[in-house]
TrEMBL record:
Keywords (A to Z) from UniProt: Cytoplasm, Gluconeogenesis, Glycolysis, Isomerase
Matches recorded under InterPro entries: G6P_Isomerase (IPR001672), G6P_Isomerase_C (IPR023096), Phosphoglucose_isomerase_CS (IPR018189), SIS_dom_sf (IPR046348), SIS_PGI_1 (IPR035476), SIS_PGI_2 (IPR035482)
GO biological process: gluconeogenesis; glucose 6-phosphate metabolic process; glycolytic process
Its EC number(s): 5.3.1.9
SUPFAM superfamilies membership: SIS domain
Gene this chain is encoded by: pgi
Reactions performed catalytically: alpha-D-glucose 6-phosphate = beta-D-fructose 6-phosphate
Protein name, UniProt field: Glucose-6-phosphate isomerase
GO CC entries: cytosol
Annotated active site: E356 (proton donor), H387, K512
Subcellular location: Cytoplasm
Protein's UniProt keywords contain Transcription regulation: no
Gene3D superfamilies on file: 1.10.1390.10, Glucose-6-phosphate isomerase like protein, domain 1
Keyword Isomerase: yes
Amino acid sequence: MATIRFNDINASQVWARLHQHQRSTRHVHMRELFDADPGRFERFSLRLDGLLLDYSKNRITDRTLELLFELAEVADLKGQMDAMRGGERINVSENRAVLHTALRLPADASLLVDGVDVVPEVHATLARMAAFSGDVRAGDWRGHAGQKITDVVNLGIGGSDLGPLLACEALAPWHDGPRVHYVSNVDPAHLARTLEGLDAASTLFIVCSKSFTTPETLLNAHAARRWFLARAPEPALARHFVAVSTNTCAAGAFGIPPDNLFGFWDWVGGRYSLWSAVGLSLMLAVGEANFRELLAGAHAMDTHFFEAPFTRNMPVLMALIGVWYNTFYGAHTHAIMPYDHGLRRLPAHIQQLDMESNGKRVGRYGERLDFDTGPVIWGEEGVNSQHAFFQLLHQGTRLVPSDFIVPMQSRYDDAQHRVLVANAFAQTEALMRGKTVAEAMAELTGVSGEALDMLAPQKTFPGNQPSNTLALSALTPHTLGMLLALYEHKVFVQGAVWGLNSFDQWGVEYGKQLARAIAPELEQGVDVGEHDSSTHGLIGFYRETHAQS
Ligand SMILES: O=P(O)(O)OC[C@H]1O[C@](O)(CO)[C@@H](O)[C@@H]1O
């Protein structure tokens, strides 16, 4: 039996002091904190390039932050940041370095990994991506029948889909290349509906898979190839299929010629891979210069993260405040509210980024943890979210810390955009301030007696619901890069404090393993193996419906 080791961060004195501090401050309403300190916003907000982080609408005082910074010291956060930045193999279970930040380093930088400078390799790949996407966008790379490529279909899932899909939608105003479509689900409807209306002669497929072993992506890739070969000869494949992967052998075995393969490295985690060749679909849509601006924005955030003192460090502050609610207030979720239609996929991307990184119950060395770790991430674009679930945020019984992400400028109707921004600001104010029963009653003019007693409590808002606001001067490739890198580092800091390996994802394997066993059992006449009665029953129901059809 393996030795059970305990991560003892929760045995530290500061951990106990944070619990004590929570008990002694939990009744303080944020209204009081604002009323007592007219300079609260100035003190609890930060600016970097075109990004403003307002963290003043949180249940924090200077003392809270002091204790949280002490917790970061006890967890040796700085040491862990240096280890990541320096290329140490901090992904211990997979014995890999974690260097998505190296993908954002300028060409004149250098970083040795196992004695090899990775920066020239990174830039060599970027140059290949730029040459290829430049050729496709200019019409120098044409389809087998000489047609310009008008549509690109990215076949990938998880980190090989969510990041580029988010960025592609967010940067829609910069699209001047071919249309880009993202197909991820193994549900055949996803590919079929995407291919409707596409012309094989002007369609380019990107098979995007770090491992090149993901069944969903391979099934879609084979299905796409069948669709293509029903409309074009075999030799044409090389003009219409490229791949992005670390697994050059498997991509080659699929039939991707070496010149059509864009590689990356095992020190890039899938959910951190947008910045690598996984971003090829995005570069095809917005061009090399905008893609490099995205990288530059992320690099600006990397430099801030690695060099700013914790007290003025955006990712560290957002992370520690998140730990405060998650671990010391028992808030189990964190909501992401992008007040921008272009950022509507941000919650989905951060769900993978955060929950696949920190959704763990054991520490990086297998230690058992007896405290809560990663929160459930959820969210929706604003203002749609207001008309869906804000009732619960305002008058429910749950503590839900949330991030409001709001660009200050729009490329469309400015007057209408002002209404969007006003709603975002109003929601954070209402969530913080609430409305007392006295204030509610004061508004119920002409109502009295039982009606007043019934209505007033229903029009009362407890408030004290925390939120961060990330205000972007405008949503651009640069600020998008900053924003996504900010969340990557926030997740890193939380994992570091909780003692997790934020860079493996063993938890995804068991379901896949069982799916591999069940898939053949859905065939008529195939013996069904050992399962519980429910799974047996479900398999039976599937076979029954297919027997009738
Ligand atoms: O890029 P790949 O190797 O196809 O993996 C896709 C996704 O599947 C996962 O491994 C989860 O199953 C993610 O971590 C990853 O982003």
